[in-house]
Design goal:
Elements lengths: L2 E6 L9 H10 L3 E6 L4 E5 L5 H16 L5 E5 H9 L13 E7 L11 E3 L2 E6 L3 E6 L7 H10 L3 E5 H9 L1
Antiparallel strand pairs: 1-3, 1-4, 2-3, 5-8, 5-9, 6-7, 7-8
Length: 171
């Protein structure tokens, strides 16, 4: 049975409780459910299912159980691990204070930007079919890079630090 990583968009400790999120998935029959951090990361086992189908099911389950809609972007753990093992950040010289991030796309972009791209505090280094490898430097005006990523890839995305992705893979 495959292990999946669900990355919910728009979750914070103020709008979602991880024990409730975990219970939603368990009540729906998913097994070995674990939540990580408080930003909408859920790892679980389920029968092999096409990702778009499972994403829609999870969104319905979560909305029914939590009373709020959170878009879900899903990855199979083994496939994400293989992608990360290829070290998508290799070969990119980054400033010492740069934060490595991965943006997950629900689907490939219609018009991928020419890379690398540096704009509004973000360095977009590489793009696989549905993952964007980036780095940003903290800015006094907050996460400007998120706005730039949405401009380039739309709103059906969610971003995690590389450290968070690694934690999800270990769960």
């Amino acid at each position: 049975m495959p292990r999946y990583i669900a990355l919910l968009r728009g979750v914070s400790p103020q709008n979602a409780r991880m024990p409730v999120l975990k219970a939603c998935l368990e009540d729906a029959g998913y097994t070995e459910v674990r939540t990580l951090l408080s930003s909408g990361n859920v790892v679980f086992d389920a029968r092999a299912t096409p990702l778009p189908t499972l994403e829609k099911r999870l969104e319905k389950v979560i909305e029914a159980g939590m009373g709020r809609h959170f878009p879900v972007i899903l990855r199979r753990q083994d496939q994400l691990q293989a992608w990360l093992d290829a070290d998508p950040f290799a070969g990119h010289a980054l400033p010492a204070d740069a934060k490595r991030i991965v943006t997950f796309l629900r689907q490939p972009p219609e018009a991928p930007p020419a890379l690398p791209l540096v704009a509004e505090g973000v360095r977009i280094l590489a793009l696989s079919e549905t993952q964007v490898v980036s780095a940003y430097q903290p800015h006094e005006d907050g996460p400007l890079f998120m706005r730039r990523l949405e401009q380039l890839f739309g709103r059906e995305i969610t971003t995690r630090t590389l450290d968070t992705v690694k934690k999800c893979l270990k769960a």
